[in-house]
Amino acid sequence: MVRTMTNASTEKLQCYVVVIALLSNGFHFIVDDLATELRIPTVKLGQICKSTGCQVIVTTAARDVDADTTKKGKTSSVRKAILTAPIEFPKERQLPKRARQ
């Protein structure tokens, strides 16, 4: 019997990995590096980071001390997830109400 993981359990596991990365790196990490390790798109990992309460900011690697992604002096943009206090979770979108006839 072959067991497969559902999409919900896969996203839950990825969320746990984000929380562990936050705890191990002082409540911030580089999203691009973790996305390549997990083999998922950076945009999807950014959405997971936002759902855990992180702010995803884009910085240049030349200014960022933690980023080791500079290539021969060239600057590149790096996405960084930071957990700040107070935590702001994304708000649910509300559909506009229909006018009654």
From TrEMBL:
Family per record = Belongs to the eukaryotic RPA49/POLR1E RNA polymerase subunit family.
GO MF annotation terms: DNA binding
- Protein's name according to its UniProt entry: Uncharacterized protein
- Subcellular location, in the record's words? Nucleus, Nucleolus
Native organism is: Tieghemiomyces parasiticus
What's a single GO BP term from this record? DNA-templated transcription
Q: Its domain of life?
A: Eukaryota
GO CC annotation terms, alphabetical? DNA-directed RNA polymerase complex; nucleolus
Any Pfam family hit: RNA_pol_I_A49
**InterPro entries named among the record's database cross-references:** RNA_pol-assoc_fac_A49-like
Q: Which UniProt keywords apply?
A: DNA-directed RNA polymerase, Nucleus, Transcription
Record carries keyword Nucleotide-binding: no
